[in-house]
Amino acid sequence: MLNFDMTIDGRPATADDTFDVINPSTLKPAGRAPNAGAAELNAAVAAAKRAFATWSQKSDAELQAACEEVAAKIGENAAELAEVITAEQGKPLNGLGSRWETGGAGAWASYTAGLSLPMKVLQDNNEGRVELHRKPLGVVGSITPWNFPLLIAVWHILPALRTGNTVVIKPSPLTPLSTLRLIQIMNEVLPAGVVNVVTGDDREDNLGALMSAHSDIRKIVFTGSCATGQKVMRSAAETMKRLTLELGGNDAGIVLPDADPKQIAEGLFWGGFINNGQTCAAMKRLYVHESIYDAVCDALVEFTRGVPVGDGLDEKSVLGPVQNRMQFDKLSRLVADAKERGEVLLGGEPGEGLFFPPTLIAGLKNGDPLVDEEQFGPALPIIKYSDIEDAIAQANDSPNGLGGSVWSSDVEAARDVAKRLECGSVWINKHGMIQPNAPFGGVKSSGFGVEFGEEGLAEYTDIQVLFS
Questions:
Q1: Structural domain range at position 345
Q2: Same domain, yes or no, for 92 and 139?
Q3: Do 363 and 403 reside in the same domain of the chain?
Q4: How many CA atoms lie less than 13 Å away from 453 in the CB half-sphere?
Q5: What is the pTM of this model?
Q6: Could you give the CA distance from residue 424 to residue 245 in angstroms, rounded to a whole number?
Q7: Average pLDDT estimate for 357-378
Q8: Rounded Cα gap, residues 320 and 308, in angstroms
Q9: What confidence tens digit (pLDDT) does each residue in 274-318 have?
């Protein structure tokens, strides 16, 4: 059993109660986490506010050095953190699983440490000098989801630290253990109070709601569903918090008629099934031109058949279970409905426990629930189109706008289509491959604000213009 304390003001912190964290592969407890409430949250925010007074005054070089130390600590503890992720989240250790996630977290932390937002001179002449300075906000509240618990925590925390802010993070109650351990590790090299973590099961005192309304938290960065993001916005309004919201997606991929089905099959699979489809920027619906529709379906089925699914701790597993019962039930409902409307090419029947086989369903259309709703699991609808204008219109016919992709042997033709998609990121002949030097964020109901790169770093700052 994995049991970690919270970290508040640099010290271990407990709560009056704890809650079980379930391993989705076994449906048995992986560990227990503190079930905190308002008192523990207030203590964490107060610690972060005190720490901000000195942390925010550190030089740019000092902040960079501290973040580099954090990145190094993540790397040193990557093997342990990967084991914790697999135990609570279910994803395999191998492939694009927990070891990949911890490696990405270390690399992301290291890259973010090297970013900077230097002062800009807007004017310097006989009429005077005008400088633009970036100043830290204060206490940043981070609320993270269960699909990439460690990586997304790093995405939230490192830019906040790099810009002189302090942090209180609340992980999902489904996957709190890796974040609890991560913050312990960070506090080995950071001053007390700079990064704090609180956990709770969200049944009574909803820590997320308390955070978004807290008067001493200047910014909330939230990754999660559109519905919860709307609640965060409403709750944050009275205190005029800064917000970065990376919300749900229903990403579309469009395969042009000149694409090679066998050549793109592996990329299509991972575009849709990375992290077992439990990724905001995974491909959730695939539009294929009628001239190669059958060939693309056949190639996808052939590749998908060879992907082993099993317990994440089994070194042979490439995909694991669905992370939780609520998501499993939603996926099962959508697939059951799709089976009545289309043709199941592969999978379609729920397995034991929370295991669900990679599922491919043909013959669906816009308006069908599996196409219109974000399934967030291992099921991909494949939709036939005859006219590219119609495909673009169908791809854009969604309240979401996180990512999209175009697949073609002609990159320039693909780029022309890509620029017409209503989404924050578009990939050519791949999908969902985000990177730390490229801003990432959604349009429409998929949120606002961006993460990563200098643009993401700037989201953690106020602008101050100095005239002299």
A1: 251-428
A2: yes
A3: yes
A4: 10
A5: 0.97
A6: 13
A7: 98
A8: 9
A9: 999 999 999 999 999 999 999 999 999 999 999 999 999 999 999
